[in-house]
Amino acid sequence: QYELVPCRYRGCRAQLLRRDLDTHARHCEHWREPCHMGCGTILTHHTQAQHNCYKQLRQEYEARQQNHRTIAAALQRKMKRMQCTMVHMRRQIRLICESLEVIDDLHEME
Question: SUPFAM superfamilies this protein is in (predicted)?
């Protein structure tokens, strides 16, 4: 805990107490780590906040695409149901019209 140790980041010459290593690492200008999303970009404290990982963007894009496909499939099913309903309604209207013609014919015969 009170032993002097070097900073673990290449290029940093700081000698610190072991207990202060973590605090130093959060601010060390030599800190370098690969992107946690796996894109391979090496980040620094300065670039980490602005890093716009394409893998995260790709995942969000694919999730939205899947959502759009789900919505499109639901709309297509609804459209087919509406088309079936329209066919049924047209059939009913045709039958009503035919029965009205028969009634008209009967009234004319009287």
Answer: TRAF domain-like
